[in-house]
Amino acid sequence: MIVLFLIIVGTVFVKSTPCSRDESLNITNGIAFENGSVFYDGLEYVDGSWYVLDVDGSDVRFGCPCIGRLCLWKCCGIGQMFLNRTCSDVDVSEANPFNPPVFRGREPSTVIAYQHFVYMPRQSCDMYLVDSNSRGEEIYLQENGTLFEIANNVLQWHSPVRFCLDMKLDDSSPKSRLVGGVCYPDQNSNGDSPGLFIAYGVGLMLSVPFLLATFLVYAFIPELRNLHGMCLMAYCGGLIVAYPFLAYLKLHTGQVGVAMTGCYVIAFIIYYAFQSSFFWLNVMCFDIWRTFSGYRGGSSTKRREKKRFAMYGAYAWGIPALLTAVTIGMQFSTNLPDHIITPGFGNRRCWFDNWMSELVYFFTPVFVLVVCNVVLFSITANRIRAIRQETAILKGSESSRSDKLKKDKQRYGLYLKLFVIMGVNWSVEVISFAVGGSNWYWILIDLSNIALGIYIFFIFVWKNKVRSLVAKKWRSIRGLPPDSTLGTWGTRSSSAPTEDTRVSAEDSGMRLREIR
């Protein structure tokens, strides 16, 4: 009974229409006849091929010209074409009348388009651009109104209501050429619900406060603001920039296309921010390797740390800037051979056009860095094993070197944890692109990427030593006396978790020589 009741209610309240809104034209001003037909703009709409809807309190009559006829959706209005990216009125033969070539497969047809099709205004869906003048792009309008697209040797067929065509003229070519706008695939084409993308975007935004908290703790506490702390701040800074923009794209999946202002800007910001974070992780791996490769006790001076950080910055910010410049150059280059892979930002989404482009421009540098980090960590682990044997016989007078080793080993452990979660995740990310399928299959990897900021916060900040320093700084800001319960970690003479404040006799001699 309940099912029958729902069926009856649905029949009463759901009024079907003979065609969708994208397949409809406003024929309110048409001439209605007693037999139920409506004549408008040279076409007759028989009874059953038109319908009436309430639009803003007024009854509007819509006709379905594609019932019994072949329709072709035109991206711009009648008498218009694309001048650069804008539809403009023109007085040229290519647009008056609009007569794109028609094919059977890839063979030219004798069909005349403007006599064969009923032209319809552009659909309401968000679209990506398909340009017949682009490398590896071919489009063929078929006699039955479908579009045959070849993109980077991938064959695709698009139903008539899912694309529009028009002519375009810009600085990249002296002659106008045919371009198409293709509706983005449905978000759930791979079985992924919109909720999955929303959850991913929200998760990324939840990770940002933890990254920001890590950055601020290391920025405002002097004991943490050493070379290793500044490298960690730079690494977190890249993720702080990348995550909000990536979350924005996830929350607008299927809605952000080439028409969106700033599409290119968002893509290049995400690209640079992620690359810089990977390079800073590589810097931290290199620095811990350098520490153990020529190990000796004591700590370096602030001046030398700043100089080294400047060199690290030139590498970890400069190389990503160079990679971004190359990517931008390839994105906007023209007249390249067909076999050259370009990024394709903005073609189908505000990111790389396809998996191959992402592999070449994004994941190749990442893989190189992951391999380098594996080598550096392996060498460092072997060196730690050797040093452990050497320090086992240290005497009390050499305890400074022993303490320094202990703290550097702790720092090595922190960086190793960070590398494992970052390197392994992104390695599996590449595999997931190659295998394909629904994002549900790789949800655990996505969750670990989302939680990266939380993970960083807990391994670098949520520790007794750092919390004691934060408490000390907070009491100092409020003008309160030091808390005796903080113990040795609450004093300046104590060692911060990533810095040893002791100075060995060897380093003291070196500094005296520098002064002289």
TrEMBL record:
Amino acid composition bias (Polar residues), ranges on this chain: 488-498
Residues spanning the membrane: 197-220, 232-249, 309-330, 359-379, 414-434, 440-462
Major location (coarse): membrane
Keywords: G-protein coupled receptor, Membrane, Receptor, Signal, Transducer, Transmembrane, Transmembrane helix
Subcellular localization, as worded in the UniProt entry: Endomembrane system
Topology class, membrane: Multi-pass membrane protein
Compositionally biased residues, Basic and acidic residues: 499-516
Record bears the keyword Transmembrane: yes
Gene3D superfamilies in the record: Methuselah ectodomain, domain 2, Rhodopsin 7-helix transmembrane proteins
Leader sequence residues: 1-16
Any Pfam family hit: Methuselah_N
Stretches for region Disordered: 488-516
Family indicated by similarity: Belongs to the G-protein coupled receptor 2 family. Mth subfamily.
Protein name: G-protein coupled receptor Mth2-like
Organism listed in the record: Bicyclus anynana (Squinting bush brown butterfly)
